[in-house]
Amino acid sequence: MKPIETTTRDWIIEQSAILFNTKGYFACSLSDIMQATHLQKGGIYNYFRNKEEIALAAFDYAFQLVMRRFRSQLDQATSCWEKLNIIIDQLASMAFDPVIAGGCPIFNVSVEAPRLDPALMEKAKHGMQMLTRYIELKLEEGALHGEFTCQKPYREIASVIVGNLEGANIVARTLQDPDRLHWAVDHTREYLKLNCLRINF
Amino acid sequence: MKPIETTTRDWIIEQSAILFNTKGYFACSLSDIMQATHLQKGGIYNYFRNKEEIALAAFDYAFQLVMRRFRSQLDQATSCWEKLNIIIDQLASMAFDPVIAGGCPIFNVSVEAPRLDPALMEKAKHGMQMLTRYIELKLEEGALHGEFTCQKPYREIASVIVGNLEGANIVARTLQDPDRLHWAVDHTREYLKLNCLRINF
């Protein structure tokens, strides 16, 4: 049921975001969206021209959910070191405690990206860039604050952190074995310790 | 054009394997398969009952291609240490020099797995298990031969290696930046060195 205070456009976006993130862009049909929203085709086409337009808006919405969860967790930390460790936990949590059904939307769209329309592919790229860039900033900030010294370029450390955890998400999900994710978290924490040498600790 | 010595069944499998691996299971339609094979619907349904049956056979075929490439590279190595390093290179090569267009088929099917029919989901799980299990065996064998001593359980090391490189494949592909993959290879080699301490070297 659509809550009274939600606009129809937002309602379509929210329901479609869940569908796209669980079924994937290709497997999600207009009929699926009609069924989930309890709207007729015309009711949906009042707001969006086609499935791609819905998918673009749905990705923006899902991306905001991820960012909001990240921010609410990160706000509780004071040091960059803590923030980096929270990011590791948050990336891992996307598999078994996702902000939106189906796992990490940035990752799900990235995986489908080479098969998607250019606009959606750009969204995936942009989402991945935002994620890695945020980690780079925390690394640089921590180094500037004198919390730690980085042994490798920020871009390289950030890329490895994201890759390790996104890959572990897939391995854990495919083998239906959450241990795989815990091992990746331990391993990525160790990697961070080895490559960001903490000062005065 | 179908080569003369290829059976029609094999021809359908080979062409479909490329389609499924590039477009994904859902986006690949029977019309795509008809177009790629130059066959009519009836010509395809002589050999397969439905799209799922083609997809299952296509996955087996693509999986064999991966295994064949692994084996041909691994046969050139004598020590388990060398073999483990070759596996790292091979997993990384799936993004930019794949055995079949579209990247690593085990990974591509795994990513779609939660959305697929149970039989295809089982295939993905089985493929991932074979891959991680093979690494575990080489770790155990190397330890038995006295090449190195492992600092962590074989399952954990194998899982981290696969996760790191599969994740890096996605990050590199999404950002269209091969460096991401090279960093993951360096990082995973370092991880191996830290967790499999070589003896007499």
Could you characterize the architecture of this molecule?
Chain A is mainly α. The first copy, chain A, contains nine helices and two strands. The first copy, chain A, has a two-stranded antiparallel ribbon with strand order 1-2. In chain A, helix 1 (8-23) packs across helix 4, helix 4 packs across helix 5 (80-96) and helix 8 packs antiparallel against helix 9 (179-195). The longest helix of chain A is centred in the middle third of the chain and has 27 residues, at 118-144. Chain A is elongated, with a radius of gyration of 19 Å. Chain A starts with 7 loop residues before the first helix and ends with a strand. The model of chain A has no long low-confidence stretch (mean pLDDT 91). At the A-B interface, helix 6, helix 7, helix 8 and helix 9 of A face helix 6, helix 7, helix 8 and helix 9 of B.
Write the layout of secondary structure elements.
The structure is a homodimer of 201-residue chains.
Chain A (H helix, E strand, L loop, with lengths): L7 H16 L6 H8 L3 H5 L5 H24 L5 H17 L8 H8 L5 H27 L3 E3 L3 H22 L3 H17 E3 L3
Antiparallel strand pairs in A: 1-2
Question: Any descriptors?
Answer:
homodimer; 201 residues; mainly alpha; 9 helices; 2 strands; 72% helix
